[in-house]
Design brief:
Layout: H1 2-20, E1 34-41, E2 44-51, H2 59-81, H3 88-91, E3 92-99, E4 104-111
Antiparallel strand pairs: 1-2, 2-4, 3-4
């Protein structure tokens, strides 16, 4: 009888603990940062990314923070697409930035011999 009671109590505690989770999982989604990517030639690849500034900044700091975020996003996507022989900081360069009110768009171009063959 004592075994059945302890088993029942254990099952009850597990049910209580499982019912404490709300089940309404909230997911935070960030705005998409990749706008486009494409090969211009076998040796040239262009990626266009957004960057959002850190909260609480204004003026030049806000703009520069968004530029840095856009550039880091471009680096991230380059490293995700290509093998380790492609270095985004040395094989690429910023073509231009487009500054918007809430974000910055970077046009980033990679140039390397036989770049199309270096896709992961």
């Amino acid at each position: 009888m004592k075994n059945i009671f302890s088993l029942f109590l254990t099952a009850l505690i597990i049910c209580i603990l499982l019912s404490c989770s709300s089940g309404d999982d909230m997911s935070v989604q960030s705005p998409p940062s990749l706008i486009s990517e494409d090969f211009i030639s076998d040796d040239t690849y262009e990626i266009v990314c957004r960057g959002f500034p850190k909260q609480g900044l204004s003026g030049v700091q806000k703009e520069e923070s968004a530029k840095r975020a856009a550039l880091l996003n471009a680096y991230y996507f380059v490293q995700a697409r290509f093998d380790n022989t492609v270095k985004p900081d040395t094989d690429g360069s910023v073509v231009r930035y487009e500054v918007q009110d809430d974000f910055v768009v970077v046009y980033y171009r990679l140039t390397k011999k036989n770049l199309k063959n270096k896709i992961k």
